[in-house]
User: Fold these one by one.
Assistant:
Number 1:
Amino acid sequence: MRTTTTGRLPAARASWHRKASRPVLVWFVLLLVLALVHRWVPESRWLLVHMFVLGMVTNSILIWSQHFAEALLKNRLGEEQRNIQVLRIRLLNLGIAATVAGVLTGIWALTLVGAVVIGAMVTWHAVSLMQQLRTALPSRFGSTIKYYIAAALLLPVGAAFGAVLAYGLDERVHARFLLAHQALNVLGFVGLTVIGTLVTLWPTMLRTRMVDGLARAGRWGLAAMLAGTLLTTVGALAGWAVPAALGVLVYLDGIVITGFYFVKCALQKRPNDYSTFSVAAGLFWLTGSLLGLFLLIVTGPADPERLHLLTVPVVAGFAAQVLLGAMSFLMPTVMGGGPVAVRNALQETNRFAMLRIAVINFGLLIFVFSEASWVRVITSALVLAAYVSFLPLMVRAVRVSVAARKATVRDQDGSNGLRRPVRVTIEPPPAPQRHLALAAAGVVIVLAGAGAGIMLDPAAVGLNLAQRAGTAEVEATGEETRVKVSARDMQFHPASVDVPAGNTLVIELSNDDPTTVHDLALETGERSERLRPGETAILDAGLITAGTDGWCTVVGHRSMGMVFEVNVIGGPSDDPAAAAGANYGSDSNHGGHGGSGGTGGPLNLSEDPGPGFVAREAALQPAPAGTVHRFTFEIKQEQRAIAPGVLQEAWTYNGQVNGPTLRGRVGDTFEITLVNNGSIGHSIDFHAGAVSPDEVMRSIPPGESLVYRFRAERSGIWLYHCATAPVSAHIASGMFGAVIIDPPNLPPADREYLLVQSEAYLEDGSGAVDVRAIAAGQPDAVIWNGHANQYMFQPLQAETGERVRVWVLAAGPSRGTSFHIVGDQFDTVFKEGAYLLRKDNPEQGGAQSLDLAPAQGGYVELQFDQPGNYMFLNHSLADAERGAQGMIAVTEAP
């Protein structure tokens, strides 16, 4: 270590950055909270992206572009103008908050107002920069200010496109506006600002001089990037793939022009701290994302679900790393206080630099390219933790900066006004070996997290943990039998192969099914990985000594005919017992359907689920305001309790057996982003919409997503469910839910409840769905809202004299319901879009039950005149005794 002295006092002037930067911190904290609870928040994907881009990035751009404009133009603004800047940023955040609220509530007018305010504030900022540029003396780096002005003028147009998207468009036009919106906001507003800033900031961060030609390259880069942004935008709006793709290449050319000189600067002085490593990594992600965007456009279609593939690389890989990297350098520098305070603060923001960089970038790579749900969950948590470390490190940086300034003031000699030199210990820069060690540690942490994800769900990565069974004594021939097998249409082609005894068998398996995942497992223990559509794999079955059966292990596929047979020629009997092996998949043979239920043990429907149990909320909220409703449905494979002590291996929408309930009015538009984080292909079918099933109802492989848009043209309660074969198994595993479209002039009710009936068919001991029990019509349980008898122990509530409306849906997969409430009668019955009975009808009639076939629904209304406990049930009593019953506790009205 070495020592130096300083006698400089810290600046007493409070920076306006402190006030202006507060919204950035607020949005950062809100973003972290949302990241932890996003699965329970509607529009979570949209919120995560826009809270970062609008909340953090837009605020930061307005603050720091003004900072650099003053520094480069040597034109310091007065206090009155500072107050105007702070006011502008406050109004900007009101616009952002209005936009977020508008999207969440579905109130398009509020979204429009927010977009107008955002556009107006950023335009105001652009005009202010123009005035400063015009009144300042000529500057070598005036092109940077032009980057800022061009970027700020693009954002209002992008914000307008965002408002149009929120209003609701047909799917084809929506895709065009989405690409144009992203081109203007990401490539234009964010990209231009970043590159324009780095023209001057990058050499400063490296602590080296600007290389010759960088300023000139900045001017050429601006022209190319601006032209590319506009060309991509126009091509997107017109639906012209070639101009849109060409615009991406022109934009990329601008990145290359400036990037060449960025590299030259880095060769003069290599990156050696978090800020430079982070910014450099962000630029690599930007380059890769641009190449990916080019390929998406030229291979077509550039629809929303394909564009979403670039969200994580652009937002988490590029924008977040550049922003936090630059902030790690700029905040300590702007806090000032002299070189000692700045240096000490920078040392804090640089702690564990390469560890954080490695976790972020290696974790993002695994997240982007992995299809395993648990691997993605764990790696995303590690990346988030690495980003979150910015906050405590920045707090430490502020503290040590303040401490250094106070130490300098305390050492001032008050007798003669002179300053006594302060001895300061300066740590040497980290050695390359330390960076390598920390980077290696980061990679190990991510690999350990990915390994834990694989262990939690080995099937998601095609891992075969079974032991190969012993084989009969057959002399090896040394020859190989090789066969090509195609998986399609729920069959293997060919479905059998003849192999001479003693030969080795190699199967070239291809998945030629366009929609879903398949694999092949043999009784002897060998198994292929799960193949996405179009993928191939080699399955080495080893030495064949006896006949062997095989099948696809995806739930339900074996029962639908996906079986394979290996026949032995000239060897021992081909009885499969000669080569006993492990059973694979939930379709494998077992000891029969005995009703023992899932992994927790036998079903006991009379057992109290205990004090920790919380019944699913059956109370319905009114239809939300607005005419456009957006939701994200994430497909997950999880264990869910369906009865006391009984767990089902469930496939779910957003983690629930019986997915989220949607509600709206006739004429409303629904947009659902379906994300498959399961291990096999899934889909969704909304009965509430009348749309061609070819695209929106198709099965998507793990890791992919699609956007399903429909307009509710008719009222009623409608089923949605997974439509991937075998459909019965997917519904029985939990993939269903309700969409309620209110009839026009629906009268008010004091209480509204929703009850969705479904069936559970559980394989003995495993909790997986038993497809043979479905075929035999032998459910283990018939349940309301995902859990048997839950409302017997936690009753629904009502008071005497209240009008109670109960919506009922029979989700199946196979059984209907006869909904009845013991001790009262219905005065209103609405079934499948029409009233069968109305209150105060001239016949003075009533109804005792609402009969529904599978996939039918409706509602009943009644009024309880006396307090008491009223049981509701499926009056097909065998099903009521399997769990389709509950209680309404009626108390005396005050």
Number 2:
Amino acid sequence: MTFKTTKLRDAISFALIAGATTLAGTGVAIAQEAQTLDRVEVLGSRIQRSEAEAALPVLAITRQELEATGLTQVADVLREISANGPALSLNTNNGNTSGNSSVNLRNCGANRTLVLVNGRRWVSDNGLSGSVDLNSIPFAAIERVEVLKDGASALYGSDAICGVVNIQTRRDFDGAQFNANYGQYTDGDGARETYDFTLGGSTERFSGLLSMSYNKQEAISAGDREISAVPLFGFPATVSTPGRASPVGPYGNFTVAGRNIILDPSRPGCLPNQVCTAATRGDFRNYNFLTDGYNFAPDNYLVQPQKSYSLFGQASYQLHDAVRFSTDVFYTNRTGEAQLAAQPLSPLTISSASIYNPFGTNISGGAFRPTDFPRVFGQEQDTWRFSAALDGFFDIGDRYFNWDIGYSYAENKQLQPKNGFYFSTRVNQATGPSFIDSTGVARCGTPTAIIAGCVPMNVMGGPNGFTQEMYDWIAVNPKNVQKSTLESVTANISGELFPLPGGTAAFAFGLEHRKEFGSSEPDPLTAAGLVLGDNPFLPTRGSYSVDEAYLELQVPLLSEVFLAKSLELSLAARYSDYSTFGDTTNPKASFRWQVVDDLMFRGSWGEGFRAPAVAELFQGSATGRPAFQDPCSDIASNTTFRNSEATRAQCRAMGTPVGYASQLSQTYATTGGNPALQPETSVSKTLGFVYSPDWFSGFDTYVDWYNITIRNQIGALGAQTILNECYYQLNQNSCALITRDTTGAVNGNPGEVSAIMAQNTNFVGGLETEGFDFGAAYRFETSSLGQFQLRMDSTYVTYYGDVGQPERGTLNGDGRISSGNVVGQVASGSSTGAPRHRLRSSLTTSWQYADFNASVTLEYRSRVRESCTNFRSTALALGAVDPQFLDLVNMCTDPNLIIDQYEFVPGSSNVVGVPRITPINYLGGTTYTHIQAGWKAPWNAKITAGVRNLFDKDPPLSSNAFANTFDAQYLIPGRFIYLNYQQTF
């Protein structure tokens, strides 16, 4: 089948690949497609057709372009496309991502982006949330990545609410190829090395390919970058409250006779294997929250180390001229770890009979951090998939039909060994009564009731007083195991139907049966709540099955008439029957209107859904420690309404004493699955055009508007929301979820919030996002200087917030106060980063001449706004002691901004705005510059070198980032230099 190349066809090709060179360092010019095209299945349609007939909002990234980025993980490539939002990666300020990396199209959430490999679903990551770990897909096996920036549940089912990523693997490869890539930061760390070898061949009927790869990423510590070496850059590292340093360090924090005390770092305190006498009390002084905090930041990783081995094989055999058998196998083994500062031993009760208690009274609410023993979260993961299929074609009259049937099975299993945690039973034993025996050895218990093997724990002797033997007695290394599987059987047929005025109608029809299973098995001690510092959770185990059928119709309405070179309508619908919640049907309609050769319009409307994931349905109760501010605390930032009689009465009724002041910044919150969950639902709309003017040769441009609404959203109320609804709205349902410690067992301060329950639920309201994708490219060639290409690709978000786009301060669909449009803001407290940029854009200039190529890419992210409370409150607290620190309030862009904060009048649904100082900070617009150059050597080799972040651009300072002072979605500070060698045999 031969087609004439036209301006519009070039424009459509541009639309299909628009955005590919948003990728940092991409310097490969887009080659013109061959004029003879086979029928293929393009992402976003199940009907096989020539690529020239399709005009979809699809971003396509070829293998050549992937290699030119200088990156070695597909997650890192997708992280830099303009339509992507904050997503998990190996970069984190202070957290354990289990080594996962994901994609988050439209900032809807990674579990609302469907990931396919060769058109089939990839298995869920170890979190069982429905998102996919892209690090489990071998980079060396990838031939092409396609990104559909539109909802597509009508064709692909659940999860395709905000887009689809399809990864096509290498096929029909003849010969052998070896790649070696090495890079590191100019700071001398974060080295990355990758090696892969691919071997393939084919005969008249058989083709096969085998690819093996090894990838290694070394760690970067937060202490190795100035901006992340302290909790708040520009401030002393030891300011804890206000501030961000931990109030618990190696010199302890103890409550004795109503006083918060700490061991003076210049004094020895209690000595190992010696009875600590009353004379040692003088070694302790009052705890100063401005100077005695612990700087935990240097102990954390900015980049988690990871190592992976991957194997990919595929083969196909032509059984008959019209029937082919194909199969592929993936296997990836990856290991890695996350590291955080040592787990505080808290809360501690130290017996008056302990040899290491000089105060002669029981001490409750004590805390101590053994800083020589950091927490390490290991990851040992195996992912594999097997698939087999028969496909072929047949003719009926002059009608052409394609068919395929296939089976696939995938499994993802991760072992999570942990170090740096403590067996709470042994901690209690080690801080209980103790004595020195006749041989001079410290023993737990009493001379008549010795606890065998126990080593008394000295938490009042500073870092030198806590010995390896003490750690070994209380240490425990829990191991959790998580597993997910996916099994599916599919059958599809597509072909031509009947002639219409605009051409021949076509269809696609398919059936699928799928079963997904997931389990998460905690260490028995973790499940029992006996591992101090390890969030306890009960086992998760569950599965569901689904039967589905879809139908797609392509209806060509007009062709070669005035103002309609062609007009085509596509209709699709998918029926899904789930074992968990029942059935759902989701339709979609789209059109492509080619007005003239130079101009094409396109648009779509579709309904979508996301079925509840295994974790959301069946997760065992799990306990975390979210940050919160207690509404009942007399030191809270209260207003007249917050201090109302109704709120005070509610607080007293639930056990807070008069004058109660909270000392906690985190509390325990327990979440869990809900088998009664219903699916999320969505509506997506797009409208755009592609223009390739005949009068401007080589120039193409496109604009696409999009709007996505998601309702019935699955989630759990946050701890702060539950507290606010209980005490400000007097919502008794929320109050029932809160437990307070009325005896002071938590930290010696009666009244503290000790537990909050928050089960998964469906929220009536949801998320809406709206914006534009737009881009342009200009290609030209000179006889003496070679080929040039300029390409710009951007996403501009106009709205992100509650459905219906309510104004800030009004009620959303769930009857809660809306934050309004939060585009251009940073979600607070995320260890992996959470900026919602209004504009992300990339401009790449590339050049190619003979065997040489080079490119320069400018990657832009617009400014975002955040709360600046940390900078302001810390500066004011320090300034009250030493006025020289007052100037630090100017680290905020506007430290004294007064704006209305909206809240409910207690006991009613009336909302009022209360003017309040709300300091803000702007993270300025940031542009990164990446360069690369390549040479094709005469011995069938390619050598490529590049520099990412050429001008060593630092990320903007962030007051609201978690654990340090820059958002983890920005690039790690420093230049990254890489070199790649490719040899073809």
Number 3:
Amino acid sequence: MDLLDDDAAPGNTPEYTVSELSGAVKRTIEGEFGFVRVRGEVGRVSRPRSGHIYLDLKDDNAVISGVIWKGVSQRLQSQPEEGMEVIATGKLTTFPGQSKYQIVIDDIRPAGMGALMAMLEKRKAQLQAEGLFDPARKKPLPFLPEIIGVVTSPSGAVIRDILHRLRDRFPRKVLVWPVAVQGQACAPEVARAIEGFNSMTPGGALPRPDLIIVARGGGSVEDLWGFNEEIVARAAAASAIPLISAVGHETDTTLIDFVSDYRAPTPTGAAERAVPVRLDLLSWVAQQGSRMTNAMGQRLQTRGQRLRDLSRALPRPDSLLDGPRQRLDVLGDRLPGALTRLVDRQRLCLAKQAGSLRPATLARALTHERTRLDDRAARLAPALERLLQTRREALARRGDRLTPRPILREIRAGTDRLATLSRRLDEAQRARLDALSKRLDSLDRLRETLGYRETLRRGYAVVRGDGQVVTTRAAAEAASGLEIEFADGTLKLGGTAPKRSEKPKPPEQGSLF
């Protein structure tokens, strides 16, 4: 089929609809490339919910879109991943909906690792050997951070998604450090942002955040490569503030994900992990309070029922005393006979002891004790003399050390302290009197301001008739004379106004005009 015939006249050139032309192109491509094998590096991979796999095959100069249908993807021995060098087998076709051609892949096998992925794996192995991926060094995330630092582009949708999610769950203060999220400036700016947040002073004018989120939307390996740089990974590992990485979508993986304290699948997921849901917390607290109240009520009810059950098994108080009362009666009946027998035994023992006593024995015992007493009396006087001499010497030694100087120093110190306290008391009393005087003056000015004389100065007057404040026309007509008080004096109208005291009675409400 010759679609473009330069020799044909314009009027004889056939016309095609868009669908006819797309179908012709599709048949041509599928006829010429019904079976092909393509070697290239896997670019961006997409796995929608339908189960199909959409990917890009690329080399240094070109990119071909590819699709693996759901049935084929389930039979593959190895799933394609971004950065893999593969050999794909399939056929070329077109997708008229987007005016592009693509390869429908029937089989795909690894052909080697791409240059970027090889570099990434080497860097990953190095950092892992240094222990930067060790789970033991990861810090726990705060349950409810006061301030959250976000490292991302200020103009993208990521920051809006994070702020919106935080506002819905639990509003927190957010500090945004703007950075480039792709290109050559990405890695150094992200590293400086992490170090800058860590260098802030807690509680300062610009407070240090309790949690850092490094976020970026999805993209290809080249777009996300800044987050695979070693400078970014080391800055994240050295951060003293807990750090959440939220770079790319759930299928995207960068080096910062391995060294961060928590890896979120998306920026929205990072916001969800950063703070709990406030309403859920309130509901949980209310639920726990209700459970505690119910548990306490049930426990009291169970213990009360247990106590009532045990009380029914206890004997009556009177029955508890029956046995002891009976034993007391029995022992009381046996007591007189027991006392008589005891007296008899003691009398017999006394008679035996009295029979063994002789005057000569007593005389020998008295002589022996008198000898011991004389011996000790003879030794007592020298011992008392030695003790008295020892005490005199100890008293003399202590008396030599006693001087009035420490007492005088203590008296002087006490005198100075008393003078200081007296001076402070006088100053405090004067300050209190000054404060009370100022308060009294202020209250007096307030009284003058709120008094009715201030109202008179604004053009009002007080009307009195027969010594009473007049508030109605009928009262004014019934009065024998009227007296009108202005701010600068009093005017009498008719009759004889009664004398008033120097301080007139304040007018009632409604008497000013």
Number 4:
Amino acid sequence: MKETLLSLILLLATFVVYAEDVTVKGKLVSASDKQPLPYATVSVASKTIPDQAIRKFATDESGIFSTTLKAGDYIFTFHFVGMNIINRNVEIKDGESLVNIGQIEMLESSTELAEIRVTAQRPLVKVEIDKLTYSAKDDPESSTSSVLDLLRKVPLVTVDGEDNIQLKGSSSFKIYLNGKPSNMISNNPSQVLKSMPANSIKDVEVITDPGARYDAEGVGGIINIITDKRVDEGYSGSAGANGNTFGGYGGNAYLSLKYGKFGLTGNGAYFYHDRPEAETTFTREDIAPNPVNQLIQEGRTNNYGGGLLYNMQLSYEPDTLNLFNVSVGQFDGRFHTDSEQGTLSRGARNYSYLLNNNSSNHFGAFTLTTDYQRTFKKKDELLTISYRFERNPGDSKYETEYSEVEDYFYSDGYRMRSINDAGGKEHTGQVDYVNPLTSKQSIEVGLKYIYRDNSSRGDNRFLDPENGNAWMEDLSRKNDLDHTQQIMSGYAGYGFKAGKFGFKLGLRGENTAQKIHFMSSKVDTVVNTDFFDLVPSAAFSYQVGMTRTLRWGYNMRISRPGIWYLNPYINDADPNNIQYGNPNLDAEQTHNFNLNFGSFSQKVNFNASLSYSFTRNAITSRVFIDEYNGREGVTHTTYDNIGRNQSVGLDGYLSWTPMPIVRINLNGSVGYTDIQSTEDANISNSGFTGLVYSGLTFTLPKDVRLTANAGLFSSNIQLQTTQSAYYFYSFSAMKSFLNKKLDLSLNATAPFSKYINIDVNTTGDGFEQKMNHRNPMRTFRLSLTYRFGDLKSSVRKVKRTITNEDLLQGGSQEGTGAGVPVTGS
């Protein structure tokens, strides 16, 4: 009897344990775009007592939820801010071990409270193994903002008062559009991004750990701007216009439409920039071993110009397995500068003159990309074949005239001009394959070939009074260049994710062959170089809690100098301060380590990142005093592989929504940089840098939004140069009309500060120079945006396409710690 009773007890205990161990799982997504809804609230109640919850938990970052329950009938209730509450009846039968209720779709909604109508939003930031994603389409301010305005609120990204963009406190990064590093943006990112409406953007990805599938880019990260790829049945669009008190103006338009198997998205913009006169004071003290001398220059400069850009994507989906995309984009911009400069030299060289200069720069890009994507029965298995062609003009010209000349090399009334015809063409072919081996493991492999053909031709002339005032060619200033480059690469990556842990490992191999033909007045040389690089990468993540993630990453990158750095063309518009590139530059290698912690929920988004990087042969701006065309004491600015850099930094981001009508965001960083010349131990620089940017937004009744922004930026550390700290601030007000289809916005930048002053100090062997920029800041901007259309269903875009991010692009200043230029205007 006792044995029978014991058996019954054990059987009952086994049944109870078994009954309690029934797992119920599913996935929560948005009905509109099938995107997962992370950190949504799920409550469970018994069907007999529906008002009393017996379980409460949250979905993970992928919208997946799981819990354990006994057999019975239950009601699952799903809550997500900005979505209609949804209930789902779930029956758990005896003997079951797993109940999968599948994919739950939630519809968007708005809540009206008394006279205040607030449309709630999803968490704006999503964290993944190797990147952070800012959801632009869920930002309520995107309707009247530009993409540049949007970047001010993206984690780890800051935009200063001069519209220069920084990532993690550094200019060492790249900006891409839909994964493509088109020169449409890289040549003048601030102007292009100011002209793009934020409502055409879906996400902004901050890729802190570029994996093996990315070209071996020697930068600290990537900002990838993803346009709204949803093309719905029917049409939708927007049109906008803006103007400011500086005399600038512009307009933009966005359109998406779909009929049957064809889809089209496109956006275009025109802008005109006119900045009031800026003042510059330059002083250089020459000391031993140079002859003692003082050079003082005071000048005034006016910049103006405009550009036109467009980007269009056409999709054709013959069936569910095949997809074809064609995209065409172009940016064409011209900027002009008129300046007047007075020069006085005293000491070893006594002279003075007044110089009037007018110059113009033509830059842009034309890009044509074709993609074919093949999907398979296995989910997320993809084969993509792509081709891209890009043409990049980079022409410039200037003309100068001397007057009030005393004891100078050029006589009174002397005139000179220069025309530089530069640019290049690029062809790229690429094949990518992605295979999710299991629900936890995936692999990716790919092959790529790039052919680049760059050239630079200069026409340098002077007005010869002894030849009937004819423009005569100046062969002594000849500096021409032909540059071809072929890159063959392959990569393989492995990803694993199980539960709270995930990682990505990758290895990329690149073989580079290039030929440089350097033609100057003194030499005619052809240089051939070949090198091979193995580039490893690794990223790990661990989910500490439902809304908290810890990440660690390492990557090694190389950076090949672009045409801007290689171009030997000498810009001697200011004969005392000349600038030129270096065709003998080698690629640089950078090693990056970072540790990141993020906590993202509907009310509070927080991210902190600790990073360390070092570069042994950094491409660095080099400034020295030397002779030029028979004149002594000329400042030369060029580039060389002479930097040995290391830096450590701490970056933080906070976005807090204490109540539906208030949102506060904060971006900041502090770091220490140490730069040492590999050629001269006496040339070094080190110090702390820091910046902070904050914003406060109020969403008021009657569709009114008020915003205030402010930023403080400390000294910038370079090898020979330091820059003073400065600050800026702005205010904006927006009002919506016609059921939120028409938005009117007024923005004021530095309304109480007419100018901003920036000091730049540079030291070198036998000289020290100081420069003060006094730039106009106070401006008011009015913008108008109207949205139209009616959409129903979506069509896909290819998930992989060509990305060329291996080149250092154009710029005029070195980046902090890695020798790449500031990506600002």
